[in-house]
Amino acid sequence: MIEWLREAGRPPAIELSGQTLPIELRRHPTAKRLTLRLAPDGSAVRVTLPRWGRSAEAVRFAASRRGWLEAQLAKVPRAQDPVERGTLRHRGEELALEWRASHPRRPEIADGTLRIGGPRETLAKRLQRWLEGEAQALMQADLAELAPRAGTALPTLRLSRAQRRWGSCSSGGVVRMNWRLVQAPDFVRRSVVAHEVAHLVHFDHSPAFHALLERIHGAPLAPADRWLRDHGRGLYSDFG
């Protein structure tokens, strides 16, 4: 079932596996056809259409792919509270969480366990802030190593909370990296950083870009691409 929810000023919606998800329409100046995707957290169906495309056609297109969308929705990990689960993803490991009021407020890792104190009610937020700090430090170190290999100046790093992109860069020398990559193994995070550094030199996906990426990364790229394809969505299940 598809609903047009104009009366509430909301976007159209589609029912998938008993859930009603909004259909978000995005017009792109270079799009030549309709493309469809599910938001990584399963919260919306997103259709990109050419500037001249009709909204009604885009909604019908989403409805025609209901089976595919339901299959994609089934793959989305359910949101989890790492505090309730008792583990935290960090650099490809599942760390056991040990909270005690007597522990220091600053997290400490030892023997596969992250120990932390402070107020129990703010624990999840503090853990996310700690992970973001870890991401900033690790990615800054990655950039400091990889940028000279590419012969480019050290870019400015900004953390991103994007729902679709792991990384992006601008012609002004700013690299944006998704903080959730700190939960992935190091080789995955580094491959995405290397990808954006290569884009600082070649703002395309030309043979020259791929040659530079392979040279500065210094390791096979396929394992990282495969890991993100198979497990990337799982990084969105923690902290909502």
Description:
The protein is of the alpha/beta class. It has 2 domains: 2-75, no CATH class; 123-236, Metalloproteases ("zincins"), catalytic domain (Zincin-like), CATH 3.30.2010. It has 7 helices and 12 strands. Strand 6 and strand 7 form a beta hairpin.
Number of helices: 7
Kindly report the spatial arrangement of strands forming the biggest sheet: 1-2-3-5-4
| CA radius of gyration | 21 Å
- The CATH class designation of the largest domain is Alpha Beta
- CATH evolutionary superfamily of the largest domain: Metalloproteases ("zincins"), catalytic domain
Rough outline: flat
Secondary-structure map with pairings?
Layout (H helix, E strand, L loop, with lengths): L1 E2 L9 E4 L2 E10 L6 E4 L6 E6 L4 H10 L1 H10 L6 H4 L1 E4 L2 E7 L8 E3 L2 E4 L6 H28 L5 E5 L6 E3 L4 E5 L7 H16 L5 H11 L4 H10 L9
Helix pairs in contact: 4-5, 4-6, 5-6, 5-7
Give a nutshell description of this structure.
The chain is built from 7 helices and 12 strands. It has helices spanning 55-64, 66-75, 82-85, 123-150, 186-201, 207-217, 222-231, and strands spanning 2-3, 13-16, 19-28, 35-38, 45-50, 87-90, 93-99, 108-110, 113-116, 156-160, 167-169, 174-178.
State the main characteristics:
four-stranded mixed β-sheet, alpha/beta, five-stranded mixed β-sheet, single chain, 240 residues, 2 domains, 7 helices, Zincin-like, disordered N terminus, 37% helix, flat
